[in-house]
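Aim 2, interim progress: modelling of the adenosine-5'-triphosphate-bound target.
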Amino acid sequence: MAEPILQTQKLTVTAGTRTLVREANLSIPEKKVFGFIGPSGAGKSTLLKSINRLVELTPNLRVTGQVLFHGKPVYGSGTDPDALRARIGILFQQPVVFPKSIYQNVIFGVKHLGEIPRREWPEAAERALREAALWNEVKDRLKQPALRLSVGQQQRLCLARTLASKPEVVLMDEPTSALDPKSTEAIEELMLRLKEHHTLVVVTHNLRQARKVADELAFVGVRDGVGQVLCTGTAENVLGNTSVSELEDFLCCQ
Ligand SMILES: Nc1ncnc2c1ncn2[C@@H]1O[C@H](COP(=O)(O)OP(=O)(O)OP(=O)(O)O)[C@@H](O)[C@H]1O
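Predicted structure of the complex, ligand included:
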């Protein structure tokens, strides 16, 4: 069996004396869609943001345990967090668009990272916008303000900004919950296409979406007052599981 691209080992996140997520052990396969499901507040976003060290930007959170990316520890002095976050990008629930042009929004991360020479930025922007299925809608107005785009287009623009840095992994934190059904479908179709070249890790509240896009799932539930990974496996197995009571309760309330 192929080596997982990402593994978490006893990954634990605490805020002061409170444990938010306890000892998560996950194995995430390459070029698949891996989903996190579970009740609100169980720790899905916290777990997701631990993968590329984004949790470190929240001062009161502390991480123990380890994340391995291609078998190498993500937490440790040998890893540059900015470079890591370019290889493991993230898309949030609400599109975060800067008050700049469409083009400037796409190349924002590329510019900051400085790995792609300036002359190649236009090509990188076009590639990313095509990959995010937005190119045809914006190719004639790249200099226009990005804030004039619809919310669905803004979310694909944010995806293009993430893709412009050529990430191997894209984390998605409820990427469609702010979108209408048509824009939701566009993002779901994109997820299925993107896994040809990328690994996707997606938090979703939506079981229909989990069924449609996820190859594998992890159920994050609350046991003894603490968020824990209580079940993992193929989407079919997790959604059909009847032996974990927290999962059964979750599935029957959806
Ligand atoms: N910086 C923080 N300090 C203290 N507690 C926090 C912090 N961030 C998150 N939490 C708490 O950690 C728990 C898990 O939050 P998280 O956002 O990861 O859950 P979630 O499963 O993603 O929820 P939702 O589905 O509602 O987004 C919640 O109880 C939340 O209040």
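Residues 15, 20, 38, 40-46, 58, 60-61, 227 surround adenosine-5'-triphosphate (CB under 6 Å). The longest strand covers residues 18-28.
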